[in-house]
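Q: Predict the assembly, please.
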Amino acid sequence: MNLSFFDQFTSPCLLGIPLILISMLFPALLLPSPNNRWITNRLSTLQLWLFHLITKQLMIPLNKNGHKWALLLTSLMTLLLTINLLGLLPYTFTPTTQLSMNMALAFPLWLATLLTGLRNQPSIALGHLLPEGTPTPLIPALIMIETTSLLIRPLALGVRLTANLTAGHLLIQLISTATTALLPIMPTISLLTALILFLLTILEVAVAMIQAYVFVLLLSLYLQENI
Amino acid sequence: MAQPPVPLKDMKLMDVKLGQLPTWLAMRDYTPGGIVGAVRRGYDRYYNKYINVRKGGLGGISMLLASYVVISYIWSYSHIKHDRHRRYH
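A: Predicted assembly structure:
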C-alpha cells in the first residue's frame, strides 16, 4: 500500500459518507443562533461581539451598496475561521485543504464582484485596467498585464488558502514524525524538535485565522473597486 | 402512580417497557425530516443544559469539540489502522 504524507488530505468514508460532510456541518453546532433575550449565554455574547467586530471591519471601506454584501462576507469569514481552526484538532479533516472547495468559494464570489462592476459602472470597472499616469508607449503592455492580474485573482484566492493550510498541516505532520522518530535515539534533539513543533502549532493557529481574514478582505477589496 | 394512556409511539424511551422496545423502535419516525428533528431535539437538550446557562464555562464547548475529535477518529479508523504497526510512517 502506498504511503505518503498526503494521506491526511483524503477524506475517509464510513458507510459511504465522507468525513468532509461532518467537517462542513460541525461549525453549525458551535455557533448558536441568537434568541431574543437581552442577556444571553456567554457563548452567544462572545459570538455576537466577534461578528460585530468582523462586520464593522469589513464594511467600513464599502459604500452603501456594498453593505448588501455584509451577510455574505461575514458568514464566509466565520465559515473559514471555524473550519481552519477545527482542522488543527487531532484526527479532524480540514475541508479548506481541498483546492476544489476553495476554488468553489473563490471563483463565483470574484465573478460576482466583476459582473457587478461591469453591469453597474462598466467604464469605471474597465478603467481599473489602466493605472493613472502611465506613459503612453506603455499603455498596451500595461493593459495586458492588468487584465492578466485581474483574471488570475480567483486562482490566487483559492490557491493561497489551499497552499497555506496544506503546507501547515504537512509541516506539523513531518515535524511530529521527526520528534517521535528521534525520541529513542537522541532525546535532546527530540526535545528541540518538540519545541519547534510547539511554535509551529502556534503559527498554524495564527495562519488559520489570518488566511480566513485575507480571503475575505481581498474579496471586499475587489468589491470596493467594482460596486 | 397511574400513567396516562399515552399511545406507544409517543412515549419517551425511559418509559417504554422492555418487551415493548422492538415495537417502539419500529414505530419511530425514520424519514429524513424525522431524523433531523431527532438530532435537533438532542442538540437542543445538550445546548440548554450546558451552554445556554447564565455562567457557562469551558466545559460545554470542550465536550462538543472532544466528541468531534472522537467521531473523526471513528470515521477515519479504517484509514488509519494501517499505520498501527508500521515502522516508518
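Chain B is about 55% helix and 0% strand. The helical segments of chain B are 21-26, 32-51, 58-75, 77-80.
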